[in-house]
From TrEMBL:
<dbReference type="InterPro" id="IPR018873">
    <property type="entry name" value="KilA-N_DNA-bd_domain"/>
</dbReference>
<protein>
    <submittedName>
        <fullName>ORF6N domain-containing protein</fullName>
    </submittedName>
</protein>
<feature type="coiled-coil region">
    <location>
        <begin position="128"/>
        <end position="155"/>
    </location>
</feature>
<feature type="domain" description="KilA-N DNA-binding">
    <location>
        <begin position="24"/>
        <end position="108"/>
    </location>
</feature>
<keyword id="KW-0175">Coiled coil</keyword>
<dbReference type="Pfam" id="PF10543">
    <property type="entry name" value="ORF6N"/>
</dbReference>
Length: 187
């Protein structure tokens, strides 16, 4: 199949997988947002074994920050969090692919479907990063407003304290004043 813009436009218009399905398969493990080999294999419509064989043949492309195998404890926690998982009967814990690892997969798996799915996954990761950045900006703005309100509250407390002191002074009777100046005794 020859590459041309028309095919690319058609592929763009056809959504392969609902974004929510992909987003629900992204996990946060060891400080990375990752997808598991079995979920990726299903999306690419290949077997998990074939996906992992392709990775093994190209292992130099997958350093630890691109792909790592879950520990048994991590895998058990993941199974527990998700209830009954379809990947519960595996012989070994799954491989987890970071965003960079998934990008590298596109060079290893070259089927049209794998390329189209990878593009969709990369777009979802980009949108997630943008949402996080937008939320961070919003959170910073809220913090600025809170700080201003806290300062205003402190200033208002000072004003009310001074007003209370003035009212207390007004309520206290003034002691009689002694006259100032010279008073002749004969008056």
């Amino acid at each position: 199949m020859a590459f041309n813009r028309a095919n690319m436009t058609e592929n763009k218009d056809i959504m392969l997988i609902p974004d929510e399905v992909i987003m629900n398969q992204i996990y946060y493990i060891r400080g990375y947002k990752v997808m598991l080999d079995e979920d990726l294999a299903e999306l690419y419509q290949v077997t998990t074994g074939n996906l992992n064989k392709a990775v093994t043949r190209n292992i130099k492309r997958f350093p630890d920050d691109f792909m790592f195998r879950l520990t048994d404890d991590e895998f058990k926690i993941l199974l527990f969090q998700n209830g009954i998982a379809r990947w519960g009967g595996r012989r070994q814990a799954p491989n987890a692919f970071t965003e960079q690892g998934m990008a590298m997969l596109s060079g290893v798996l070259s089927s049209d479907r794998a390329i189209a799915v990878n593009i969709q996954i990369m777009r979802i990761f980009t949108r997630m990063r943008q949402m996080l950045a937008d939320n961070t900006d919003l959170r910073l703005e809220v913090e600025k407003i809170k700080t201003k309100l806290d300062n205003q509250d402190k200033n208002m407390e000072i004003v009310f304290r001074y007003l209370d002191e003035l009212l207390e002074k007004q309520e206290q009777p003034n002691p009689p004043r002694k006259g100032i100046g010279f008073k002749p005794d004969n008056f």
